[in-house]
TrEMBL record:
A GO CC term attached to the entry: nucleoid
Molecular-function GO term, any one: DNA-binding transcription factor activity
Protein encoded by which gene: mraZ
The protein's assembly and partners: Forms oligomers.
GO terms classed as biological process: negative regulation of DNA-templated transcription initiation
Protein name: Transcriptional regulator MraZ
Amino acid sequence: MGILIGTYECKIDAKGRITLPAPLKKQLGDLEAGFVLKRSDFQRCIDFYTMTEWNLEMQKVNSLNRYIKENNDFIRKFMSGVKLIEIDSVGRMLIPKDLLEYAQIDKEIVMSALGNRVEIWDKTAYEKAIYTSPEDFSALAEKVMGGLGND
């Protein structure tokens, strides 16, 4: 799997299921391998990982020394709410109720690709999170990317 691209608006049904957008489903590749959902580390949204990407994350986590309390505390919080999920035969995935409540997802969602994973947001919360003036984004871009020696 390569880099995931795109932002997709979807609706969630009464049972907590989302039909994956066709362009995203095509990028995900092997749907039978399963996926992982977890609480996002920095925002009130859900992180969606392919098994390949999840295994890479777990290699990093498992390299931490568990005899250091701070590391153990991090691992416990990082792993809280982690769920293995599958995509059904019609391309839907069920988001567990506890994750929907955590992300405060109601009916309309946004699935936003971030390279190696996808964030799943309540649509209103997503719009608030990404809103910034062009000037503010310009300053952020300069601060984050300006020193990389891009030509």
